[in-house]
């Protein structure tokens, strides 16, 4: 307002009438200004010009302008009237009304807008300087600067009277410029814009500029500047970071951080789903059907209506389902069947396995063997009844008549099978025949009996021996009849024959004796259990049968026979014969023959058999036959009594020939001895056994020595065990807490020797020593075994085990006891309720694969609430952590902030 | 030559009468036994070299062979696939085998552990996969059977002993001594953890209760003693008469010991639950049988007795744990399960350091070192205390201007300095030591002067 008034006054042309303007706002200021102006010293004109040039905005220059223009001096000390009113010259227009009112429109346009701007703009700048305030507070100079500018402007605008000789141009500058006050001021440039739209703003800015036009100080040195900058930046960044602290802290202290809960798959997969294929389109049309949508929106009743299915449809569906089900079922059955079918090789292997199993079983188990035999016998009987293999049936005859070549394959195969069977059977018969031509019916009967009565081993053995005896007798008797004619009747031949016979008789006698000795143990073992120590039945039978035919006791033949017998005897026997040839035969027999018999016994028996057979053989052969050379002793505990059975025979090459009876006796003695021995000391006994057994070394001394040492130790050990222990304990204590060294004095060191001698050890040394001693005693007292006489507990620290202990007390714990108590509680599901287990051993970070981990977002965190959360565990954490945060994320933020600050 | 087959036939004829299975063996005994942890398989070793593995479910022989050497002990490793036998050849110079061997179940020799020497007893620590042995010189060896590394080898200095037993609770090995002491060892220390004077005569057998807190020892002075290992004292919990060469605790805590002249077995039981053992059963063997080893079969009420004529098993009602945990030991394990459990047990293998008297201590705060340095605070506190003491001293009033305030202050200052000086000297000393140590480490890096002439000089171009 004040300004406008001023303007209006200026417009009135009153330059010097500042004091009189009468406006309460402007007056005071102007007065001050005027006072300064007027009362100032008078300057010479040149000087003044200079001043004006330097300070062109001051009102003096305007005054001086005027003075120049009109050649008059306005600057008087005492001046009563303003010039306008004096009207001394024509400079001022005659104005009737000094209180000039601006036209309405002008006022509306400018003043109001300026005021508004001022109010707003100034408030924004925080200066709070309205124009009135400005005028009030600012020093006079500012007031001066402003006012004359307007005045000048006014003057230029209004001063129409003054005219130049030449129009103003650059060749003809105005006087102002020529005078040196030429530089165009901003006001000058600004003034023409007055009244334009952006004016007020522009003016204000310039005003602002002017106000601040304090001379800018010299810039700080660069280093300082940068330091300040850094400081500011640091403050800023710390502030920024501090904001994150509670969040980070919370995340750090959270037992578990979750990264999985804001996963929203639906939006990603189904939001922009558009049906593409026909099927999809169809579905979409059904789903997004308007009717359906409406129904959904309204209520369920309409939906029900829409859902109606006709009975026909239902029936169709039912049928379809039934069909599908049956198809499925059939398919299933088929696949099951297919799955069941196994390959040819599988069946072959299976069959093989089964055969093996049965054979093994039959070998092991008498019952199974019996069963098998029965079965085979049944088959044989059946074959005998049907005589299928003979080819004598009507059908076969007819086929033969018609010719086999004409027949179809099936028939041919059947015929072939019959023939094969026939061949097999006949071959078996033949082999039987040439194997033991002499085997009579009763022997075979006997064989059968033997086969099926495993319990009667003994009887058989006895029988066998009987037979052997009989045979030898026969031989002895046979030897008696001497041929009367021929070469053999020649005297030397007779003599030779006699000698031979005698030798044979001798041997026969020996054999008899042996048989006797054999029969004794057999009788002994009559009560023995199922251990088969007797000779196996099968071979016995064959031997027996062979022995029954004394005519054929030719050496070689007997040998052969034995061989052939072996066919039936055992595939395990050491004479290796081709078992392939008579597989079926073996199958028939061998399994029956060897039921429970252990092999070595069989082998032994074989040897004895050899004896039987080869009465006429030289013994070298026998020795060559590989038999076990050990004495096999079996001790059996049965029914509380001890029995020892000799199931072996030592076939010693040297001890064999002559001393058989003696040996047998000896053996018996031995047997008794051993039983005795066993009662006394089984150890020594067994060692003896070992000596003539397969362990050739003599371990007797070996075993004796330590036991003797032991005895000595035992004898002297227990003398003063406790003293020993006491000593040991002292040693340990000394080792773990060594005794302090005794104080020693070097003669002449520290003191004169005579003083040393007189006073002895200095007191401090003694004290030190005593202290150390006391300390040691204390530590010894603190030991766990201090009060225990018979216990030493080592207190050595194991360095290797140190890593298994906790080094320092973990954070939340304050005392060792509490911590140790806490770790004593197990975490496993066996010891905790299911609800607690999850919380107890949940991993630190829970993340579902494929979930993007976003950086931390800022949020207000209540630092008080956080502590609470820290103490809680498990589920509450889960809730709290829903907004995903991570340490890494926060780290990222920090770096981001830093980069920002740098740039 | 007598084939082994014959032995097997005699070993297992089809006798299974009334729970007492007593096969006789041909004086290859006395026999020692071991069961797998599930009790499914048994290894028997006859003194005269007869080794066999038996499937105890089917009572079928798996493998049997003759090693022709004295067999001292047999022990199964982690499952029935492997077992170790302590062997010694029969004083033959040419056959110098006196080592433990590891065999697989087919009887194939896999390893010969020569470092162990002539071993008297073997024990296997199945949680740590360690094979522990004591040889006739009293050397204790621990060998890791997974990698074959020798974990520990110590001279125990206790002489020849064949009383050795592992405490199943903590893996500590107890050795009996001829002087009546039982010492306990771990693989990471050369000194015994514990020595306990148990008997006046030599210790002949040791057994541990499965919970590891109760130990039974037998001495040659015809005493059997029971000890509580949690609360060691001079006196045993209980002393029983008996000259036992072998002892064993069952899973349920029955104690089997051999009695008399070695041919009868006594079973003791803690009837009241107050650790007083009383006779529960007696079993007399045939006279003349020397019992070598008593071993309860795990998860069965059966006691296996290895004796001079073979082995017998007798029924002891209430001996075995009735409910087995298949994750721990499965008597009905299939081969697949066995493989699985083998892998698991290997993954769960405990390091040898974890063997200690009280394994519950693992994870607790480290025990304080005996000689620990005082902390800085303590040092400062010590100095301050000394200074305070000095300050509290009232100076005597002295004449001739010697009690002037200026003199007094000087005197006080001197006193304080004197009080501080030992602490400071100590500090200096420590610093010096540290510095010296540092120097030493540096010196170690440098080659000794005597070798300097061999150091190749760098080409100085």
From TrEMBL, chain A:
Bias kind Acidic residues: ranges: 57-68, 102-139, 572-583, 676-686
Keywords, alphabetical: Nucleus, Phosphoprotein
InterPro entries from the UniProt entry: SSU_processome_Utp14
Basic and acidic residues bias (residue ranges): 7-17, 31-40, 47-56, 84-94, 554-564, 766-780
Sequence segments annotated as region (Disordered): 1-193, 426-455, 518-589, 649-702, 723-782, 857-903
One CC-aspect GO term: small-subunit processome
Keyword NAD: no
Statement: the UniProt record of this protein carries the keyword Transcription regulation: no
Basic residues: compositionally biased ranges: 18-30, 873-885
GO biological process: rRNA processing
Protein name as annotated: U3 small nucleolar RNA-associated protein 14-like protein A
Native organism: Pyrus ussuriensis x Pyrus communis
Taxonomy of the source species: Eukaryota, Viridiplantae, Streptophyta, Embryophyta, Tracheophyta
TrEMBL record, chain B:
BP terms from Gene Ontology: maturation of SSU-rRNA from tricistronic rRNA transcript (SSU-rRNA, 5.8S rRNA, LSU-rRNA)
Positions of WD repeats: 196-230
GO cellular component: 90S preribosome; small-subunit processome
Compartments in which it is found: Nucleus, Nucleolus
Keywords: Nucleus, Repeat, rRNA processing, WD repeat
Matching PROSITE patterns: WD_REPEATS_2, WD_REPEATS_REGION
UniProt keyword Transport present: no
Nucleus listed as a keyword: yes
Domain BING4 C-terminal: 279-359
Chain coiled-coil ranges: none
Entries under Pfam families matching the protein: BING4CT, WD40
SUPFAM superfamilies in UniProt: WD40 repeat-like
Protein name: U3 small nucleolar RNA-associated protein 7
């Amino acid at each position: 307002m004040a300004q406008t008034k001023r303007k209006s006054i200026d417009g009135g042309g009153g330059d010097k009438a500042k004091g009189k303007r009468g406006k309460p706002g402007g007056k005071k200021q102007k007065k001050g200004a005027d006072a300064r102006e007027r009362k100032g010293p008078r300057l010479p004109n040149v000087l003044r010009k200079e001043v004006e040039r330097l300070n062109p905005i001051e009102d003096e220059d305007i005054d001086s302008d005027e003075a120049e223009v009109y050649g008059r001096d306005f600057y008087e000390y005492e001046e009563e009237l303003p010039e306008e009113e004096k009207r001394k010259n024509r400079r001022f227009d005659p104005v009737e009304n000094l209180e000039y009112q601006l036209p309405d429109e002008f006022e509306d346009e400018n003043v109001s807008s300026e005021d508004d701007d001022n109010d707003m703009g100034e408030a924004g700048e925080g200066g709070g300087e309205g124009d009135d305030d400005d005028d009030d507070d600012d020093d006079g100079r500012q007031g001066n600067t402003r006012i004359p500018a307007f005045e000048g402007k006014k003057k230029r605008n209004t001063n129409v009277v003054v005219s130049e000789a030449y129009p103003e141009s650059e060749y003809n500058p105005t006087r102002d410029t020529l005078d040196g006050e030429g530089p165009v001021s901003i006001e000058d440039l600004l003034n023409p814009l007055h009244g334009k739209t952006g004016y007020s703003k522009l003016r204000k800015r310039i005003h602002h500029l002017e106000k601040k036009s304090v001379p800018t100080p010299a810039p700080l040195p660069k280093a300082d500047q940068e330091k300040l900058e850094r400081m500011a930046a640091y403050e800023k960044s710390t502030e920024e970071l501090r904001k994150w602290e509670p969040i980070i802290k919370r995340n750090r202290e959270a037992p578990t951080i979750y990264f999985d809960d804001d996963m929203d798959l639906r939006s990603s997969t189904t939001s922009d789903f558009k049906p593409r294929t026909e099927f999809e389109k169809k579905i979409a049309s059904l789903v997004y059907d308007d009717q359906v949508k409406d129904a959904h929106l309204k209520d369920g009743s309409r939906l029900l209506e829409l859902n109606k299915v006709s009975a026909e449809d239902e029936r169709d569906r039912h049928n379809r389902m039934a069909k599908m089900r049956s198809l499925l079922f059939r398919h299933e059955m088929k696949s099951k069947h297919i799955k069941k079918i196994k390959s040819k090789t599988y069946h072959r292997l299976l069959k093989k396995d089964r055969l093996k199993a049965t054979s093994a079983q039959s070998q092991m188990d008498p019952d199974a063997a019996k069963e098998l035999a029965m079965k085979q016998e049944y088959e044989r009987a059946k074959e005998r009844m049907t005589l299928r293999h003979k080819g004598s049936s009507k059908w076969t005859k007819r086929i033969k008549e018609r010719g086999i070549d004409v027949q179809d394959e099936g028939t041919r195969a059947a015929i072939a099978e019959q023939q094969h069977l026939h061949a097999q059977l006949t071959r078996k018969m033949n082999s039987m025949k040439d194997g033991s031509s002499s085997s009579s019916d009763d022997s075979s009967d006997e064989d059968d009996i033997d086969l099926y009565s495993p319990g009667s081993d003994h009887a058989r053995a006895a029988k066998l021996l009987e037979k052997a005896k009989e045979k030898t007798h026969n031989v002895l008797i046979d030897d008696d009849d001497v041929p009367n004619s021929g070469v053999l009747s020649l005297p030397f031949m007779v003599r030779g024959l006699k000698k031979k016979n005698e030798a044979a008789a001798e041997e026969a006698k020996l054999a008899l004796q042996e048989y006797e000795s054999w029969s004794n143990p057999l009788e002994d073992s009559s009560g023995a259990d199922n251990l088969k120590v007797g000779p196996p039945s099968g071979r016995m039978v064959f031997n027996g049968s062979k022995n029954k035919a004394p005519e054929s006791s030719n050496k070689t033949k007997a040998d052969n026979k034995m061989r052939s017998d072996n066919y039936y005897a055992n595939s395990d026997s050491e004479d290796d014969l081709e078992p392939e040839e008579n597989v079926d035969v073996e199958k028939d027999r061998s399994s029956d023959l060897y039921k429970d018999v252990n092999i070595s016994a069989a082998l032994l028996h074989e040897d004895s058999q050899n004896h039987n057979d080869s009465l006429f053989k030289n013994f070298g052969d026998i020795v060559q036959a590989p038999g076990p050379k050990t004495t096999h002793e079996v001790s059996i505990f049965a029914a509380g009594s001890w029995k020892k059975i000799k199931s072996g025979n030592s076939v010693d090459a040297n001890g064999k020939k002559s001393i058989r009876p003696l040996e047998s006796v000896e053996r018996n003695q031995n047997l008794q001895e051993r039983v005795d021995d066993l009662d006394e000391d089984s150890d020594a006994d067994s060692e003896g056994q070992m000596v003539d057994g397969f362990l050739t070394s003599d371990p007797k001394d070996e075993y004796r020595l330590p036991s003797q040492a032991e005895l000595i130790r035992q004898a002297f050990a227990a003398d003063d065990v406790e003293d020993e222990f006491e000593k040991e304990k002292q040693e340990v204590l000394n080792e773990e807490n060594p005794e302090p060294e005794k104080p020693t004095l070097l003669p002449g060191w520290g003191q004169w020797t005579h003083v040393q001698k007189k006073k002895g050890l200095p007191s401090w040394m003694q004290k030190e020593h005593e202290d150390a001693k006391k300390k040691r005693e204390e530590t010894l007292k603190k030991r766990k075994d201090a009060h225990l006489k018979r216990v030493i507990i080592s207190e050595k620290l194991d360095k290797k085990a140190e890593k298994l202990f906790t080094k320092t007390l973990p954070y939340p714990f304050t005392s060792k006891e509490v911590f140790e108590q806490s770790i004593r509680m197990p975490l496993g599901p066996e010891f905790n309720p299911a609800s607690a287990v999850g919380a107890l051993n949940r991993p630190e970070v829970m993340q579902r694969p494929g979930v993007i981990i976003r950086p931390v977002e800022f949020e207000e965190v209540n630092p008080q609430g956080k502590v609470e959360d820290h103490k809680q565990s498990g589920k509450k954490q889960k809730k709290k952590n829903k907004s995903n945060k991570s340490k890494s994320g926060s780290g990222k933020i920090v770096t981001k902030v830093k980069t920002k600050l740098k740039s | 030559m007598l084939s082994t087959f014959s032995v097997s036939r005699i070993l297992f004829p089809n006798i299974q009468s009334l729970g007492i299975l007593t096969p006789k063996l041909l004086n290859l005994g006395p026999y020692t036994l071991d069961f797998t942890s599930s009790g499914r398989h048994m290894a028997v070793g006859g003194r005269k070299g007869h080794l066999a593995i038996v499937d105890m479910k089917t009572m079928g022989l798996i493998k049997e062979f003759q090693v022709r050497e004295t067999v001292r002990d047999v022990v199964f490793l982690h499952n029935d696939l492997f077992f170790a036998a302590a062997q010694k050849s029969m004083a033959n110079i040419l056959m110098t085998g006196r080592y433990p061997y590891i065999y697989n179940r087919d009887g194939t020799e896999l390893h010969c552990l020569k470092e162990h020497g002539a071993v008297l007893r073997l024990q296997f620590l199945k949680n740590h996969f360690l094979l522990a042995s004591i040889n006739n010189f009293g050397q204790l060896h621990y060998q890791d059977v997974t990698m074959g590394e020798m974990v520990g080898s110590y001279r125990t200095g206790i002489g020849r002993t064949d009383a050795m037993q592992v405490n199943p609770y903590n893996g500590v090995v107890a050795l009996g001594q001829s002087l009546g002491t039982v010492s306990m060892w771990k693989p990471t220390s050369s000194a015994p953890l514990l020595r306990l004077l148990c008997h006046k005569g030599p210790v002949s057998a040791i057994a541990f209760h499965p919970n590891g807190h109760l130990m039974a020892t037998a001495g040659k002075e015809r005493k059997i003693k029971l000890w509580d290992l949690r609360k060691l004292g001079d006196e045993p919990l209980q002393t029983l008469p008996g000259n036992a060469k072998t002892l064993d605790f069952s899973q349920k805590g029955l104690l089997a010991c051999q009695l008399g002249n070695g041919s009868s077995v006594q079973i003791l039981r803690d009837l009241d639950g107050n650790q007083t053992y009383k006779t529960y059963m007696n079993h007399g063997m045939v006279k003349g049988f020397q019992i070598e080893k008593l071993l309860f079969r795990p998860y069965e009420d059966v006691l296996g007795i290895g004796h001079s004529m073979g082995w017998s098993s007798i029924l002891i009602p209430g001996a075995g744990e009735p409910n087995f945990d298949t994750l721990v030991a499965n008597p009905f394990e299939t081969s697949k399960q066995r493989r699985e459990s083998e892998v698991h047990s290997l993954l769960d293998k405990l390091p040898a350091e974890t063997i200690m008297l009280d394994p519950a201590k693992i994870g607790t705060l480290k025990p304080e070192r005996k000689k620990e340095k005082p902390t800085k605070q303590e040092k400062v506190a010590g100095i301050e205390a000394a200074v305070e003491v000095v300050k509290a001293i009232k100076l005597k009033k002295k004449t001739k201007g010697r009690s002037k305030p200026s003199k007094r202050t000087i005197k006080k200052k001197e006193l304080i300095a004197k009080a501080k000086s030992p602490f400071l000297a100590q500090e200096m000393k420590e610093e010096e030591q540290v510095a010296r140590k540092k120097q030493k480490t540096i010196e170690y890096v440098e080659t000794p002067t005597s070798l300097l002439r061999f150091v190749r000089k760098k080409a100085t171009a």
